[in-house]
Amino acid sequence: MQKPLLLAARGGGSAIVEAQFILCGLDYEVDYLEWQQLAEPGSRLAKYNPLREIPTLVLADGQVLSESAAITLWLGDFNALLVPQAAESQRVPFLRRLIWLVSALYPTFTFGDHPERFVGAAESDALRRSTDGRRQQLWLQWEKEVRPEPYLLGNRLTALDIYLCVMCCWRPRPAWFASHCPKLFTVAKRISAIPELQALWKRNELNWKIKVANS
């Protein structure tokens, strides 16, 4: 049977999905694209995803899944390890926070990483600063609410913990989390140490960033 193909870029959100495949023990193939390729209209990624965003998952039957939250829920249909199911008490807080991550936090990178796509040169720096500030506010909000025991939803490891671990390596970077969001940072460190994920972190150049913050 043909394996699903994950179109990815090193250090990006595709690492969140790839970590889930690994922990769930599901077979997959991965094609790492260079970041500059993502912007190319004629790239292999554009063939499957007109927005040219990763992660993009090409299923065995040719159907395409984009958006990390959609892929996460799809994976949960096959393996419930990281996705609480309908009858579980953690289902509602899981869904709430998963969609919050991709609808509130992710757009700050969409607009802030490449402000020139949305505003003129004169406004680019202001958009970058405002989205960075908004992102920090959102992380601080979650820091107040979370009670890791030892994971974000208690004693159950979920995909939310994977999201946090990877996103902790993005702006404002691990050192900021250690100082301003120590509870979230503690969870991220715990996930970063999972043995099965060490090769993935290395491939995505995420592991060393967490180590620097711990030094």
Question: How does this structure look, described?
Answer:
- By secondary structure, the protein is of the alpha+beta class.
- It has two domains: 5-78, Glutaredoxin (3-Layer(aba) Sandwich), CATH 3.40.30; 91-196 and 208-214, Glutathione S-transferase Yfyf (Class Pi), Chain A, domain 2 (Up-down Bundle), CATH 1.20.1050.
- 54% of the residues lie in helices and 7% in strands.
- It is built from ten helices and four strands, in the order βαβαββαααααααα.
- It has helices at residues 14-24, 44-48, 68-78, 91-113, 121-145, 159-167, 174-180, 182-192, 198-203, 207-214, and strands at residues 5-8, 29-32, 56-58, 64-66.
- It has a four-stranded mixed sheet, with helices on one face.
- The longest helix has 25 residues, at 121-145.
- The chain is globular.
Secondary structure layout:
Layout: E1 5-8, H1 14-24, E2 29-32, H2 44-48, E3 56-58, E4 64-66, H3 68-78, H4 91-113, H5 121-145, H6 159-167, H7 174-180, H8 182-192, H9 198-203, H10 207-214
Parallel strand pairs: 1-2
Antiparallel strand pairs: 1-3, 3-4
Helix pairs in contact: 1-3, 1-6, 4-5, 6-8, 7-8
Protein name: Glutathione S-transferase
Domain GST N-terminal: 1-83
InterPro entries: Glutathione-S-Trfase_C_sf (IPR036282), Glutathione_S-Trfase_N (IPR004045), Thioredoxin-like_sf (IPR036249)
